[in-house]
Amino acid sequence: MEKVIKQILVLNGPNLNMLGLREQEHYGTASLDDIEKSVKEIVDKNGFSVEFKQSNNEGEIVSWIQQSINNSSGLIINAGAYTHTSIAIFDALKIIDIPIIEVHLSNIYAREHFRKTSLISELATGIICGFGKLSYELAIQAMITNIQKTGKKINE
After folding, report:
1. Is the Cβ–Cβ distance between 64 and 72 less than 8 Å?
2. What are the start-end ranges of the H helices in the chain?
3. What is the dihedral of CA 78, 80, 83, 84, to 10 degrees?
4. Mean pLDDT across the stretch 22-38?
5. Could you give the residue numbers annotated as active site?
6. Which CATH number does the domain 2-155 belong to among 3.40.50.9100, 3.40.50.300, 3.30.428.70, 3.90.1150.10?
7. pLDDT higher for 3 or 43?
8. How far is CA 89 from CA 67, 81, 83, 129, 148, in A?
9. CA angle 3-91-2, nearest 5°?
10. What distance in Å separates the CA atoms of residue 67 and residue 50, rounded to the nearest whole number?
11. Residue 11 in contact with residue 61, Cβ under 8 Å?
């Protein structure tokens, strides 16, 4: 018997643990805990679960991506500064065969030149940026809809 995996992994990169304190004009006043709480409310209402993680360590993020292969039906990632620099994260994302949504609190295309380059975008099913905390809420809704339509299945 096959069953749809209803686990979504949300990964957050460097300095996102400092949300609410740093550059509020770009990132808003919500903390990462506030965002996690909001995301969990949405997944709970839809019968899904979420694993919400943050690391300032590139290797740890790569390991989490690799572990998602058998455990998650979708990945939402805000890789922070690694979005623009990490070939290791890019290579790990190439390995997985689940939908990926790239998310950013600010509009990276309306900021400094170096932020306009994303190594993740070409691998992403979709990109949501520029809506602050709402970016995550939109991403989780989009992921749930995508999973419900396509459904990653496992054998029981």
Report:
1. no
2. 24-27, 32-45, 58-71, 87-95, 133-150
3. 160
4. 79
5. 27, 104
6. 3.40.50.9100
7. 43
8. 13, 11, 8, 19, 26
9. 5
10. 14
11. yes
**CA nearest to 8, candidates 156, 120, 148, 104:** 148
Residue pair 13/84 in contact by the 8 Å Cβ criterion: no
And the tokens for 111?
A: 């900021």
Strands 153-155 and 2-4: antiparallel
Chain segment 43-68, per-residue pLDDT in tens:
999 999 999 999 999 999 999 999 99
> Amino acid identity of 76?
I
- Phi, psi (rounded to 5 degrees) for 152: -80, 130
**For residue 18, what pLDDT band results from cuts at 50, 70 and 90?**
confident
- Tokens 């903390």 appear where? 31
